[in-house]
Design a protein that fits this description.
Blueprint: E1 12-17, H1 23-27, E2 37-41, H2 51-64, E3 71-75, H3 79-85, E4 96-99, H4 107-114, E5 120-125, H5 133-145, E6 149-150, E7 153-155, H6 157-163, H7 178-191, E8 198-199, H8 209-221, E9 227-229, H9 235-242, H10 246-255, E10 263-266, E11 269-272, H11 273-290
Parallel strand pairs: 1-2, 1-9, 2-3, 3-4, 4-5, 5-6, 5-7, 7-8
Antiparallel strand pairs: 10-11
């Protein structure tokens, strides 16, 4: 049986090439015990000629894999690879699938394949559909009515940049680039009011600790939760950023307390129960999984 998950508990989600030699140690939680979630990737992280080796590596990992606190997802290269992954012994022990290049062209195929299964899915918005409001609205309508069990939506930042012929410097925020910022804003405004959690795109630089921490803080300020990560050194900064302050925690409790008046003040800032209950629930979920700063 697939366990119940909250998208907020995922934290930094580490992409792992499906051919990685330490796949078993990572998925068992032995190698990176502070990691909350991972995606075993058979798509962009490996070459096409490595697919057979990747499938064998996943097969061997699942032979002795026992679910622990780490949330484990697989990323099929395409619907055809998803069909093959579903045939692997013990596949029911993983939490679900990250669906790449999710678009109006492939969404029905993914739903048809996964309809008999209880897995969570994380559609990745990274196709050209990102640049069409009508297609994003079509994806939203489809997900709201489909049988897919959507845990969250993931933003494919590097694919987005590729379509725009852009490349960020390590010290440059994606939110300062006009086109990517506009696209992220549209995804947030089209999906979040309808109950979808959206995770932040990758920060594709290693060793830039201060810039990375700043990026995660900005992601949270923009309403994104969790982040795609590409290196173990990014795990703990994401965990730290998702911890809440004592002030945030106290205000969230007030907003969800039936005894609190419609308007309240804390440290000179107004809290409005009707307007801030959704924010308060997210803060308390972050507190549940990550604690206080």
């Amino acid at each position: 049986m697939i366990r119940a998950l909250s998208p907020i508990q995922l934290g930094g989600t580490l992409y792992i090439p499906a051919t990685h030699k330490d796949l078993q140690a990572i998925c068992s939680g032995q190698k990176y015990p502070q990691l909350r979630s991972c995606i075993i990737d058979t798509e962009d992280a490996i070459d096409e000629e490595e697919i057979d080796d990747a499938m064998e590596n996943i097969t061997q990992m699942l032979l002795c894999y026992k679910p622990g606190s780490l949330c484990v997802f697989l990323r099929p290269r395409n619907p055809e690879v998803l069909i093959e992954l579903l045939k692997i012994e013990n596949i029911d022990r993983i939490d679900g699938f990250s669906l790449p290049k999710f678009s109006t062209e492939v969404m029905h195929a993914y739903e048809k394949i996964l309809r008999p299964y209880p897995f969570y899915v994380m559609p990745v918005l990274e196709s050209r559909d990102l640049f069409s409001t009508a297609k994003l609205e079509a994806i939203r309508s489809f997900l709201l009515s489909s049988t897919l069990k959507t845990l969250c939506l993931r933003l494919g930042g590097e694919d987005m940049m590729q379509f725009l012929s852009l490349k960020r410097s390590c010290e440059e925020s994606i939110y300062t680039l006009v086109a990517p910022a506009k696209i992220i804003a549209e995804v947030i405004t089209l999906f979040k009011p309808f109950g979808f959690t959206i995770t932040a795109p990758v920060f594709n630089c290693i060793g830039h600790t201060e810039a990375f921490a700043k990026a995660v803080g900005e992601d949270l300020r923009q309403g994104l939760i969790g982040k795609t990560i590409i290196h173990p050194e990014q795990i703990e900064p994401v965990n730290e950023a998702h911890r809440v302050t004592a002030s945030e925690y106290a205000m969230a409790l007030k907003m969800l307390d039936a005894k609190t008046k419609a308007i309240t003040l804390q440290e000179g800032q107004m809290g409005e129960k009707f307007a801030h209950t959704a924010w308060a629930r997210i803060i308390l979920e972050r507190y549940r999984y990550f604690g206080l700063k």
